[in-house]
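Can anyone check this?
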Amino acid sequence: MDLQTVLEYEAMVKLDLPESERIWIAEKASMLEDSFSELSKVDTEGIEPLISVLDLNYTLREDIPIKSISREEILSNSPEQCDGYFQVPKTIE
């Protein structure tokens, strides 16, 4: 990444970085770009993508909804309520 690109990103996010930081960012971003370009050279044809790098079988429980706390119990802790809902101060006019 060159300094001009860093300046463009800097303008987009409305920052004003010192020159030393711009140079540091450009160097680090170039290192990352080089690393990713090396990875793009790896032949992955016919390789199935992994969900996880670990060889784990995730056993998920059945998603069964249960009613654990009644609406009345929850609203009993509310300082104000209206028609079965929490009542809060208006925040937008």
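Reply from J.R.: I decoded it. The chain has three helices and two strands.
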